[in-house]
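Comment thread on ticket #2218

A.B. wrote:
> Attaching the input chain for the structure job we discussed in standup.
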Amino acid sequence: MNKYIKKFDSVEVESNVKIDAVHIKRTENNIDVHEVKIKWDRGTTNDKSYASIKILLPMRRSKFRWAPYCQLDKAMRSTWMGTAKFNTMLAVDCPVTCVYDADDCNEYTVALSDVKRNIEIFSGYEENGAMFAFRGVVMLCELGTLNSYTFKVRVDRNNEYIGKTLDRTRKWWEEILGIEPMNVPKEAKLPMYSTWYSYHQDITDESIEKEARLAAELGMKSIIVDDGWQLDTCGGGYGYTGDWNVVPSKIKDMKSHVDSVHGAGLKYILWFSVPFVGYFSDIWDSVCDKVLYKNDGLKAAVLDPRYPEIRRYLIDKYKEFAVEYGIDGFKLDFIDSFYTANEPPKTDDMDYEFVCDAVERLMTDVKDELSKINPDILIEFRQRYTGPVIRKFGNMLRVGDCARDGISNRVGITDIRMLAGNTAVHSDMIIFDTRESVEDAAWQILNSIFGVIQYSVRLEDLSPEQLKMSRFWLNFSAENKDILLNSEYVAHEPHCNYPIIEAFNDKERIAAVYARNKILPVDGRKTTIINATPDSRIYTESDAEREAKITILNCMGDEVRSETVKISKGVNVIDVPKCGLVVIE
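C.D. wrote:
> Ran it. Output below, let me know if you need it in another format.
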């Protein structure tokens, strides 16, 4: 197979069809932007035709690699390894990689401008030449009737904490793509209850209302009613999905039920699977010829949003629930399923050629029309559909499912926050065995303390100690949300799963330590240190001798000790109960 290669500076463009290419490079403030426009003859392409852009950069300091999908694996990978490859599109991650040194300082943050189309990314160590390589591949058959495409590659070389270079990348996307993030109401950043892990599909109005009352007593401000309310059964599957009618066997009177939850003081958020329509649904016969593909395992198909009547149907359903029942928010799931490598050709009945553009239009219209009904509407999406375009029509981004996996929650929250701006970042729903120790239960919460906590344990089953612990940490989260969620944020050692995380302003600082023998510098600011380590001690380092008041609380918020002490210059040891905290002021 022929390869056509064009080289410009450190950039290489490759295709297996003949292309013309024009390259422009701009450099400012240690940031290079390469713009390469390619053109080809559509008559020469087939379903294997591709074009790629590759940039090779010499590495001097980098030891680790951050990408949106990496999660627990931040190791440097050779580009031929499967773990060096990932795909991005509108509803899956975003095309960026950062390679950084042992001080968490950036050497290169490389990003592509196209955050909507399906792009295959290879990023890692290029053994031939000992370079960092970043390559983005686009299949020309997925570009429909287009015969030109522009790659923009941005290389940020600033030697600073990677959170800053990633945040600058986020701002670049917003600027060049005109992304205006959705309004974030205050409730989006307050603790919530979810029915998913606690009940799965086995929900009733009585159980939801009971949990709502208990959740309100513990300090939660919203409840997310997940999958199950639309099904008579509890067996999973999506064969009957698509009609979106409340089944009386689960919820007898939706309006009075929502009113009851509101009466308990909670907002009501309802789950919908956006793209699926079941083979056994009432609407199947009317939409079965307007689907992208079928999934016989699910007994369902994925709707094609390029049809305006499909978008209208979904929007009207969500509006119906917002108007008739007073729903305050929507958990909109599975929008990454609106993808197929071989999109059916555009027909005269469609108003978009590309599915990604139609999905963006659908979700933007959903946001716009629901916001007219309620300006503070809450809309949640979960990992991996947490990219920059999603922030246009979602104000809550949640970590992907990781039941009882505190580390994945901690890493997921932090990774999403790196690119999320002011959008609320939520934990996956917290669950633990109600028979485990109060400290072990608290550890699950503490791994999510720098995100919005979603809780999914049957509250009536909690022990008195677990109830007290939950109330303390949920209230701590709410009372300190301005520091925890809205201030400057530094998560150390991504390659070690962020063993120290801190958020701070000029006057106050909150830090959490998750691994043994970590030393945390302290200064003159009021500092709260959360001990999420297996040991009952915290190590601090002071740059000067000073007098301070320290207050130590256990994981249930009980005061263990409060006194004025002399802090020595250098390393100090403070006894702090496991999953408790110390306040130094």
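A.B. wrote:
> Thanks. Noting for the ticket: The mean pLDDT is 97.
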